[in-house]
Amino acid sequence: MSMSLLEKFYSGDIQALSRLISEVENQSNGYQKIITAIYPKTGQAYKLGITGPPGAGKSSLVDVLVSQLVQERNKVGIIAVDPTSPFSGGAFLGDRIRMQNLSGKEEVFIRSMASRGSLGGLSATTFEACLILDAFGKDLIILETVGVGQIELEVAQHSDTMVVVLSPESGDSIQAFKAGLMEIGDIFVVNKSDREGAARLVVQLNMSLESKRKSEKWGYPVLSTTATTGQGVNELLQSLKQHRDFLHQQGLLAQRRKLQVKSQLQKVLENQIKLSVSNRFKSDLDWERLAEEIYQKKETPYSLADKILQSWRS
Length: 314
What we know:
By secondary structure, this protein is α/β, with parallel strands linked by helices. It has helices at residues 3-10, 14-25, 31-38, 58-71, 126-136, 173-184, 198-215, 233-250, 252-284, 287-295, 301-313; strands at 46-51, 76-82, 108-114, 140-144, 161-166, 187-190, 222-224. Helix 1 crosses helix 2, helix 2 runs antiparallel to helix 5 and helix 4 crosses helix 8. The radius of gyration is 22 Å and the shape is globular.
């Protein structure tokens, strides 16, 4: 990483922004130095997480929502995490295709990132990409998770406000709530509300949220939208502003961000340990001999693992 690249980045150069995110996403040599260099300039952007089952229309909703935010002079960064292509290792679907209204708007930067096997629905380097967009001067960063039918709880560890998007035909929706989506959502959206079953889903959601509303100060709104027509998007925008104000008034924003940092510190430590262990795997172990000992029943995988760890500790 040259200093000229950072200088271009700080001057607002989009190509420099894109290149820095690529360096981090590919975990190139020196990517940690990039984060160290920009870190003092982070902490200003607000992070909005958007998750939900596949087919709920998350990208279409982001498209119309951001179009309205831009009209209010917001600078927005979007990280849309797609499934990983088995051939290139890159993002498979390319959410930018589904956000056509935003293409060409200089206030908006859209990046599709590959999940690369991450089970939480986000790319492993999502947090770092958020930091780069934050340091670049974006007011709002939207994290849209991959929709592959998994419960994508990890996004909540990165977001200030969490939106769960559902549609009437997503038959696994209520089962998904039971598995955890109801716990992480701050705002719930029934998209494609012009379709049959939308009103019933709104009622079910409101019933499920009754106990949370009684025990907490936030109202957990359930909204109806139709992204293709823009119906309900103004109400969603108002709810987002209200939740942000609520977090500030209750002193909860700092609390959430400390949890985000704690989560990231844990991930960085895990990655460093994995890297250290991986390097030792390559240099320290005679795999053929170890495998033979297990095959001959002289050892078990557990007994050998204990011995290897003990030798490393000493």
